[in-house]
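Input record (Table S2, row 600):
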Amino acid sequence: MPVDHFEEKEFSGKLTGEVTRRILSLLKPYKWRVIGYLASIILVSVLDAYLTFLSKQLVDNGIIPGNRPMIIQILTNYGLIIIAQAAGIFGFIYLVGILGERIRFDLRQKLFNHLQMLSLSYYSQTPVGWIISRVTNDTERVAELMTWGFLDLTWGVVNIVTSLAFMFAINWRLALIVLVILPFLIIAAIQFRKRILSQYREVRKINSKITASYNENITGVRVVKALGRERENLKEFGGLTSGMYKAGFRAAWLSAMFLPVVQLITSIAVGAIVWYTGAQINYQGITIGGIQAFVSYMTFMMWPIEDLARVFAEMQRAVASAERIFNLIDTDPEIKDKPTAIDPGTIRGDITFEHVHFWYEDELPVIKDLNFHIYRGETIALVGSTGGGKSTIVNMICRFYEPRRGRILIGPFDYTDLSLEAIQSRIGIVLQTPHLFSGTIKENIAYGRLDARDEDIIKAAKLTRAHDFISHFEKGYDEQVGEGGVLLSVGQKQLISLSRAVLSDPEIFIMDEATSSVDTITESLIQEGLEAIMKDRTSFIIAHRLSTIKRADRIFVIEDGQIAEMGSHQNLLRAKGKYYNLYTRQFRNEKEEAYGVFSQ
Ligand SMILES: Nc1ncnc2c1ncn2[C@@H]1O[C@H](COP(=O)(O)OP(=O)(O)OP(=O)(O)O)[C@@H](O)[C@H]1O
Ligand SMILES: [Mg+2]
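Output record (adenosine-5'-triphosphate complex):
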């Protein structure tokens, strides 16, 4: 597929209003769970801060005055709070776990549904790896953000707020000082993280270049060797790895510096407070327990601050993921039903191309002013040199692509007035590179008709001669084909996908080099069966082996997006034109090929 020019849009990861709204809307169906989860976090955090407050009371009102009943009272409260806290912690971890699963599932479902609707043109412009990464990595990252990231964030914020509140309750002057220092600490922490992150991003960028370079050199190793490119490639590779080393070194250095620096600032602040309050004890109304609690609250707050920087960095990445996902969801299918689209119940009828123009990329016409009329039930063969536009024509009949100019009629309808479902569910198409799905042979044949009976499946397979090789398998029709059918040869896959099309009993039947990898003997055996299928239904055959298309009602020679010649086999031979040339050259080759087979 021509995807070299695919360039990924850069996403900022900035939390704009629009993205925030859409991310939050993912939570909407689970409103009550979210509320329950926020409530349990707040509860746990407040209780946590209150425990420290109890320690202060224990020192000031119990231990220092030697008040035994008070000590017992406070310790009992302590125990009760710890139980309540445990319940709260269980609550939010449980809720967050469920929430994560749901969001992941919802997002994947949404993407999957949308991907099914996108037109073929989207797939020819977007690398499959990119799409899969959206569905797996990005949904994962967003689900993480919505759950654990969200949890870290709320936990940090709530902790800072409750710590501050309790500090104010103990001594508002000191609390005010902390409140002033706080933003600086937060900014310092975030700046540090940003630097580290940008270094790591550099590392990742180089890393993906290295992977790509590996990939190209390994898959193309024969070419590399044959052309003696080893030395140049090694040089390029060396440049990449040393760049990666430098960026990695800087990132590691910054990371190593980060914690000590933040901790140093915190310790200095704590020390200053202890020193300052120590000098003021008694006349500022702060107690020993109060100082102790204050220092605890300070350290309490430092954790989330150190952590917040990490959470923000992760959030940024997750937001970029969310943007990519939304971008994919927002991609409009190029081909979609009109609101007034109808299903006429059948698409048996004549097919007409009226001044059809088509191009994949601007300024590169592929089909040029194509006109033809095909009668219902006709068998049409498309032949011609490679790149002429044969596959494009049949893809247009399936409405995988629509004319850019002109129109295509099925029966009396402009086919864009029909629903895609109405057209595509009644067309059977078999491609040169057929796709099988992992599962058994039987499942693959019945793919388009899940209700098919075993007899029907076997009948279809006999017609296409797939039955012969299937019955040689140990498990017969229940044999697994492997992922994408890797356990079968290309020819076997073609026969299975041919059986699939036969079974689906389509109204229009299309074979695009459907038997190109099947040996000539089997192909001639299939011929009879296929003729039975093509009888009474409009069929299109594209083939390079002319022996398979001789019996078509009409043959179109397609050159350069136009019909260069048209007629029956006999007529075209008599005309001694392009088809004649093709045929005589090809026929000689095929004879030699057949001879080769027989002499083995
Ligand atoms: N997805 C695509 N994006 C861009 N250009 C394409 C795409 N598919 C085909 N083309 C171009 O359109 C032209 C016609 O291609 P098409 O596949 O229809 O030819 P074909 O007659 O089926 O050839 P072949 O006999 O080799 O199968 C070619 O020049 C090809 O490069
Ligand atoms: Mg083709």
